[in-house]
Each structure stands twice: as C-alpha cells, then as structure tokens.
Amino acid sequence: MNKALAEVTTRTRELSLTATSTPDRFTRLHIHVPLLRALVKSGYSFYVPDPRQVLKSWDYIWKHADFHEVAHQALYYYQHRTLRRFEFDAIKHWVNRCDSWEHSDDLSKIYAGVVEDNPDWILPLYERWNIAKSPWKRRQSVVGLIEYASKRKLVLPYADLIRFVEPLLRDPDYYVQKGVGWTLREIYNVYPGETTLFLHRHIKSLSPQAFSSSTEKLDKAEKTALKQLRKN
Length: 232
Fold this sequence. Notes:
The protein is an all-alpha fold and 232 residues long. The chain has a domain at 119-232: Alpha Horseshoe (Serine Threonine Protein Phosphatase 5, Tetratricopeptide repeat). It contains 13 helices and two strands; from the N terminus they run H-E-E-H-H-H-H-H-H-H-H-H-H-H-H. A two-stranded antiparallel sheet has the order 1-2. Strand 1 (20-21) and strand 2 form a beta hairpin. The radius of gyration is 19 Å and the shape is elongated. The relative contact order is 0.08.
C-alpha cells in the first residue's frame, strides 16, 4: 500500500509548481482538475483485474495521503462507477477524513450514485449523518441525495428528500447552509411545485446562503415575491 501511495504522490507532485500548507489536514499542490482527472485515467501500476485490490490501494491512499490532490484522485477514480457493495462498505467511511468543500462535493457525486442505485445501503447512514457533530456529514446527508438532478435517471420521492433538508434549515455551519440551498435547488428541478410551497412556508428560516442557492432556478417574479416575504 505504501508503494501505491508513493507512486500516486510522485506522479501528482510532478504536475505541481507550488505547494502550500493550509489549516486543513492536507497540503495543497494547486493543480488544475483536468490534469488530475487525466492522471487518474492514464493508469497506475496497481490497476489490476481484481477490483478488491484496486480498492485497497485507493482506500489506503485516501486515508494516508498528505496532499489534497493525491487524496482527491481516489474520488475521481470512483465517480461515474456503479459501486459494488464491498466498494461502498469502504468508501462510506471516506467522509470521516473530509475537511474541505472540494472533497465534500466530489464525495457527493459518489454517494448520490449509490442513492440512485441502492438507496437502502446509504439512507440509514444519511439519517445518522443528518444529526452528526461533523458538518461534513450533515452536508453529505443533503448534497449526497441528488448532487445534480440532471445526472439522475431516478430520484427519490419528494417526501423522502425533504425530510433530510428540513432539520438543517437553521444549521449554524456555512457549508451546511450552502448544501441546503444546493439541494433545495436540485429538488426544485424535479419537484418544482412542492419545493416552491416549501420555500414559501420556510422563507424566514432560510439563511442568506441557502436562499441564494435555492432560488437560482425560480423565475424573476417568484423570486421577487419570496424576497418580499423575507423582508416582511
């Protein structure tokens, strides 16, 4: 596993001109995303026929990488794949090391695919994450429901989605609030009537961040009416 981590770290660092430490757990190499995605596609020596062995390498890399972009390649690898149960059983724990919106958003891409393919695997987790101490878990419990509606062939019923959103309307965390707004916007794209009624009913509970994101797709007149309700 150390060999796999060293290989990915070496090849990733070759793409970087600078490195900076941040308050996060990771040092950032400031590499453009298309370069990183291309690197994942180009292949590594641990890309073997046995998917369990591949998972062991990526799981170790995610858990032990010192660099933000090195860890991120594990996320890129599993996006757009239908996860098998043994893969999900490992990747469901990756949220525990998440400490940035970039990692959070790309984890949501993976988790939303699981919601679409096997919701019974992940919804019980979302119920626990929705009330977790970690803001990144709370954020996943909403953003990971759909991520982007345009990607989904199947979406949960409105009631099953909104039950995760409503408890977080007054959450104090900035990134959770951004996630609430994002998710309401995507629910609106599938269930516009129900979501519009929800926005009217809870307009005074929406944070500025959630209001801004959740109303992006509304027509001008509807958005103006909601703004007036907030003022009143």
